[in-house]
Hints:
Blueprint: H1 2-20, H2 25-28, H3 39-54, H4 80-99, E1 109-112, E2 115-118, H5 119-145, H6 159-176
Antiparallel strand pairs: 1-2
Helix pairs in contact: 1-4, 1-5, 3-4, 3-5
Amino acid sequence: xxxxxxxxxQYYKSLGDKSFGQLSDEQIFWQYNDxxxxxxxxxxxxxxxxxxxxxxxxxxxxxxxxRNRDDEFVNTFKTKQEVMDSWExxxxxxxxxxxxxxxxxxxxxxxxxGEAHSxxxxxxxxxxxxxYHIGQIVSIAKMIKNDDWKTxxxxxxxxxxxxxxxxxxxxxxxQTSNSSPVCFQNSPEVRDEYK
Length: 195
């Protein structure tokens, strides 16, 4: 299960990474209005949450005394690089925590703000929380880039073409990797037990 969590979170992290790659220093700090968050502020919040929740997560409450959540919504970054460094620091902490999850502690009780959760539940909470904010990052980046946005998924009006290409690729993979113990028409190899 841990590998599945890592795979899913790596995917969501990659959406953020690909969005940042399309933005200039100034664009990272753009906000729609005074009540909106810039991408920089959203990153500050995600990283702050990750560091608090996942530092010593098996032995300490996930809401650390040193965390100032309100301050996470005030930009203090000066450069895009500072934003990226914070992003990477948060993810490094989180992925390190995920690497510590195993069958023995998956259902162990941990605490967030004094509330008991299983480790599994705490991870699932973040599987909802982090993609929510990454979706905000992607949405803001798309607004900023407008016609210059490079899509992170299937291009608009290209779903049928994408599906056809996927079907072709999967068909070709099946043709070259026949795992049937009886039918080896597409493979020069025949297992010893079937010679």
